[in-house]
Specification:
Elements (H helix, E strand, L loop, with lengths): L1 E2 L4 E4 L14 E6 L12 E7 L3 E4 L8
Antiparallel strand pairs: 1-2, 2-5, 3-4
Length: 65
């Protein structure tokens, strides 16, 4: 994972176990509300849905200084 004040790149490996069904896509969702923990999760947005094993988010991020 690599991040800057305005972007974050995440990477993952293929699923260890597909449960007997092929995996066609991975999905990455981003919490739109500032905060940490399940109690602060109010709104999710899908930012990636595809076959790649990495994704770079460059919009919708809030830089904290």
């Amino acid at each position: 994972m690599h991040s800057t004040a305005t972007s974050i790149e995440i990477k993952w490996g293929p699923a260890f176990d597909d449960g007997g069904s092929p995996i066609y896509a991975y999905e990455v969702d981003m919490d739109l509300i500032e905060g940490i923990g399940q109690a602060n999760v109010e709104s999710w947005i899908n930012v990636f849905n595809g076959e790649a094993l990495s994704f770079k988010v460059e919009t919708g991020l809030i830089a904290k200084m």
